């Protein structure tokens, strides 16, 4: 499911709200998660899962086209750990 499909689904489930209002809610939700992760925090949605970041160390990589060695800088990457309820529902 992509973002526009999520907005459409929410529009169908909540006909009393306009598409613009739902788009603002979805944007605010995602922006809040991103803001929390940027500060090094963690976002936990009970029954769904937890978003956090993990550190990746600098390393030597390879350019797949030329095979030349390339330096890859250290970085933080997003990480999602599904909750117990989600895992149980997926593996019925």
Q: Element order, helices and strands?
A: HHEEEEEH
Mean pLDDT: 95
Based on DSSP secondary structure assignment, what is the total number of beta strands?
Answer: 5
Going by helix content, strand content and strand pairing, the class is alpha+beta
Largest sheet strand order? 1-2-5
What is this entry, summarized?
The chain is α+β, with helices and mostly antiparallel strands. Helix content is 41%, strand content 29%.
Explain what the structure shows:
- With 92 residues, the chain is α+β, with helices and mostly antiparallel strands.
- It contains three helices and five strands, in the order H-H-E-E-E-E-E-H.
- The protein has helices spanning 3-13, 19-38, 84-90, and strands spanning 43-45, 49-56, 59-62, 69-72, 75-82.
- The chain starts with a helix and ends with a helix.
Give keywords:
92 residues; alpha+beta; 3-stranded antiparallel β-sheet; two-stranded antiparallel sheet; elongated
SSE diagram, text form:
Blueprint: H1 3-13, H2 19-38, E1 43-45, E2 49-56, E3 59-62, E4 69-72, E5 75-82, H3 84-90
Antiparallel strand pairs: 1-2, 2-5, 3-4
Helix pairs in contact: 1-2
